[in-house]
Design goal:
The chain is of the alpha/beta class. It contains ten helices and 16 strands.
Amino acid sequence: MTQIVSKVYHLLGPKDLVMKSETLDTDQLREHEVIGETHYSAISPGTEYAAYIGMPPLRPGKVYPRLMGYCHVSQITHTGSQVTNLSPGDMVLTFQSHRTHVKFQDSDFFIKLPGEHAAKLTPAYLYHLGYHALITGEARQGHNIGVIGGGTLGYTSARMSEISGAKTFLFSNIEGLKEKLRMPGCEVLKKSSEALNGVADKTHGVGLDIVINTSNLWSDWLFALQLANRGGTIVNMGFPGRGQENPDFNPLDPRYVYDKQLNIKALNNINETGLEPYEQRFNVRRNLEHIIDMILKGKLNSDNIITDTIHYTELDAQYLKYASRNHYLLSTLIQWKN
């Protein structure tokens, strides 16, 4: 009997992160199960920070305990007798949580990766979210696109917009953000009345066709309503009002929503995999495969969204660093191999 002890992070409550042990018995592996050893994972700051500090949940239901993380790369070590699509040694990107070892079904979502590039492909899903926001907004080359928020998803949304051929603006009040982001083709502006007035001139009078809002702040929601042009689209990646008091304005003010005939969208619901391209051209698998290709070809540099690299034993301290709000942090790469 061969047993592997997997160390798994669990969040029991706000700022109460513990590591529990789970035993994986390789001799009891079912026909379609695989086991992998984690090499890397990455922090998705918005989701994980919100859970860690105890922000209100997005929907009713049990909040804690919960697992943390979903950007995960592991190397397959054991396969069940009927597994044909994976072999020991394969490196895979999955949606597993932060843990030293994983066990999953061969029918679960995974994408095989070239092992030598595993580290830089770990945060690919964070670029996918920005790409998916553009698809949701039906972005076209030549569109004028504004992104509100200078965090990880603000960066990935703006970067994907920039390389798509859209004229891209990122709105944030973080000092020195343009230098931090390293996106020379994206104009970084303060969230201000001057920026509102200046956008028309910078877009030859057209304004912003699409506004991608990555923020929870009501003030940023109002800014999004003001930014979008007549007939424009707002795509919500953030959750306006989460953790906020009720606003002192009407968030559906008719002078914006009605008079401007705005389209307000959440991210489109898409399947992870399975549907044929003619049924749903863009799904999670095809989007991620596209992102991975762009990283491997050097069109995207995932290092630009990795602010820190840590050992997995430092995860609690890293969450506290995010919670302090004293540092400019995008994603963090977590190394699991000693």
